[in-house]
């Protein structure tokens, strides 16, 4: 139980509950995606009314620290970073130069994950990657295919078991997905990505480091042909 007795009598009861919620997150080491206790549980923990707890959570929502999810309740998020990336992805010019910069960043991460993935990518993980890849090929729109392409790579990062990398890719999702949309301006591009993904999956299954690096590099480079070079 979080002890709020040492919270000095300053500000409103809502402010005290907001402070207590911040300490609760810190003491329980709660991170992005973790759910807070229910309003009733928080009211009992903090010796506060449910209306006070509800107002405190509303403040956290306004600051982009939590969001409400159906059947889950208040979940820790960080919409401030997401809003920043939404704006950044909207403003950035997807040119050949920016494509190479972003894909170079991804190459440093995804190509060099092979050894870790060889340890962690079991049959269930492989089946999950195949399922996402098949859904991408069957997507009815190019935008949907781009979203599934991102999901494929996000799943790959997730299977590596590095939470920080998963969070970074989550934050970068608007930018990366926009890049993937720019690289999928035809059904031919989707089919090419599908085949690249298949080759990456096969390399993972065979624990073939050279094949994995080759096909991942090829895949990350492939979309460049669909992006016009910057006018001089």
Automatic annotation (TrEMBL):
Q: Does the keyword 4Fe-4S apply?
A: no
Which terms are listed as keywords in the entry?
A: DNA-binding, Transcription, Transcription regulation
Per the UniProt record, one Pfam family is GntR
What highest taxon heads this organism's lineage? Bacteria
Record domain HTH gntR-type: where: 11-79
Q: Which CDD domains match?
A: WHTH_GntR
Q: Which Gene3D superfamilies match?
A: GntR ligand-binding domain-like (1.20.120.530), Winged helix-like DNA-binding domain superfamily/Winged helix DNA-binding domain (1.10.10.10)
Entry annotated with the keyword Plastid: no
Q: Please give the Gene Ontology molecular function terms for this protein.
A: DNA binding; DNA-binding transcription factor activity
What protein am I looking at? DNA-binding transcriptional regulator, FadR family
**Organism expressing this protein natively:** Rhizobium multihospitium
């Amino acid at each position: 139980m979080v002890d709020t007795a040492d919270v000095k009598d300053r500000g409103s009861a809502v402010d005290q509950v907001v402070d207590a919620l911040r300490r609760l997150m810190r003491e329980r080491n709660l991170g992005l995606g973790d759910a807070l206790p229910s309003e009733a549980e928080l009211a009992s923990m903090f010796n506060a009314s449910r209306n006070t707890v509800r107002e405190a959570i509303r403040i956290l929502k306004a600051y982009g620290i939590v969001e409400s999810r159906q059947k889950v309740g208040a979940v820790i998020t960080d919409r401030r970073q997401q809003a920043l990336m939404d704006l950044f992805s909207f403003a950035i010019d997807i040119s050949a130069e920016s494509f190479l910069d972003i894909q170079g960043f991804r190459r440093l991460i995804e190509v060099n994950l092979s050894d870790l993935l060889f340890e962690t990518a079991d049959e269930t993980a492989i089946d999950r990657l195949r399922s996402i890849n098949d859904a991408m090929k069957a997507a009815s729109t190019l935008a949907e295919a781009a979203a599934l392409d991102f999901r494929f790579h996000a799943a790959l990062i997730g299977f590596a078991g590095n939470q920080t990398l998963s969070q970074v890719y989550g934050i970068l999702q608007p930018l990366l997905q926009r890049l993937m949309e720019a690289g999928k301006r035809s059904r031919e591009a989707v089919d090419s990505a599908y085949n690249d993904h298949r080759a990456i999956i096969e390399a993972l299954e065979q624990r073939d480091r050279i094949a994995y690096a080759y096909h991942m590099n090829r895949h990350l480079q492939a979309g460049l042909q669909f992006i016009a070079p910057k006018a001089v």
